UniProtKB/TrEMBL annotation:
It is found in: Cell projection, Ruffle membrane; Cytoplasm; Mitochondrion inner membrane; Mitochondrion intermembrane space. It is a peripheral membrane protein. Its main location: membrane. This is Acyl-coenzyme A thioesterase THEM4. The gene is Them4. Signal peptide: none annotated. It comes from Cepphus grylle (Black guillemot). SUPFAM superfamilies: Thioesterase/thiol ester dehydrase-isomerase.
Amino acid sequence: AAVGGVTPPGEGTPPGDTRLFPRAIEGDGNGFEYAMFLNAAERRLLCLVQPGPYLEGHPGLTHGGAIATIIDSTLGTCALAVVGPVVTANLSIDYLAPVPLGAVLLVEGRAERLEGRKVFLSCQVRGADGDTLHARAT
């Protein structure tokens, strides 16, 4: 039941309605500003994201945990489209170049293979120009 106008997680949420953690920061431009585009036939999802000032780690740079969050959300959404609801069992990230706050990133997630209930995915985080590889993950 709602307490003080707040509904506890899971209550009042329709079955199958999936929530993305990046929506947790309120205020336009403060946290995760993103749009996702799915190509179901290719089992691929492209996320266009711009990290806001609330995601700062070192001065002027995006916190690695924020990068991990958008990678996890991109891969999770890709897997959701391919096989349905999933949870992350393992996430391995190689951070290759710092991400300036406000930079526009292209995060590409791909379902590489399926083994029973498992979905194996890969991800690349590039600058909008496509030249700088900021991170890769599996």
